[in-house]
Amino acid sequence: MLVDSHCHLDFPEFDGRLPELRAAMAVNGVTHALCISTTIAGFSKVRALAEQHDNFWCSVGVHPDTEGAEEVTQAELVALASAEKVAAIGETGLDYFRLKGDLEWQRERFRRHIRAAREVGKPLVIHTRAAPEDTLRLMREEGAAEVGGVMHCFTESLEVARAAIDMGFFISFSGIVTFKNAAALKEVARALPLDRILVETDSPYLAPVPHRGKLNQPALVKHVAEEVARLRGDSFENICCATSKNFFRLFRLTPSGVMQIR
Q1: pLDDT bracket for residue 261 (50, 70, 90)
Q2: What is the dihedral of CA 113, 117, 123, 125, to 10 degrees?
Q3: Which superfamily does CATH assign the domain made up of 2-251 to?
Q4: How many CA atoms lie within 13 A of 2 on its CB side?
Q5: How is the beta sheet containing 2-7 ordered, strand by strand?
Q6: Cα-Cα end-to-end distance for the chain
Q7: What pLDDT does 100 receive?
Q8: What does residue 152 show for φ and ψ, rounded to 5 degrees?
Q9: What pTM was computed for the model?
Q10: Is the dihedral angle over the CA atoms 103, 97, 80, 166 positive or is it negative?
């Protein structure tokens, strides 16, 4: 069993290709996936993917760098997140890499997502890029530790990872950990406790070696798991087992597709 904890199967790159993607998952032992929301306008498509397939779940949220996107209130997030196949709030967080200037709107959006997660009692899927201090600060100020979650596609320092883990969060590695120039991230993957690690594709982006530069898909998460195993001197099978167990524990899910009541 292997789980892709973060993918975007609703994106246009995958239109008409779902049977092919699911077949490739089966061949490569990828049994489950979490389909991530980035806009409210696109949420219905993400939710439909989860509702039509027992081994898919979804999240609801507005990506931090989607400037000008339809904003969503805390109450609206709570209502949308109450559906059975919605496992998390997000993708949310802060991104100071792509956008510059006054980003207070981004911080306020992040705060609303954290508050909604606390209200509905579901974990957060957090994106942070070039904003580690503010991300951790807002997480602390808004009580993100109450629900926990995952720092997805992690590229920050070991210090940031440990601070997030101290708040009950998991750290998810994407194909970036397979890149030759990701020496610092490889050290993070070696150092973290195994019971706090997830793996993901972030597909259609960030295809892992040996597929770098190509269209990514959930089946390729096995290469991420293989690299994490190599870095830690562990077996591929143990990494698959541990990261899958971590996924179901974090999102309070069962492999049958049922969400456990908190």
Answers
A1: very low
A2: -10
A3: Metal-dependent hydrolases (3.20.20.140)
A4: 25
A5: 2-7, 30-35, 56-60, 86-95, 124-129, 149-151, 169-173, 197-199
A6: 24
A7: 85
A8: -85, 155
A9: 0.96
A10: negative
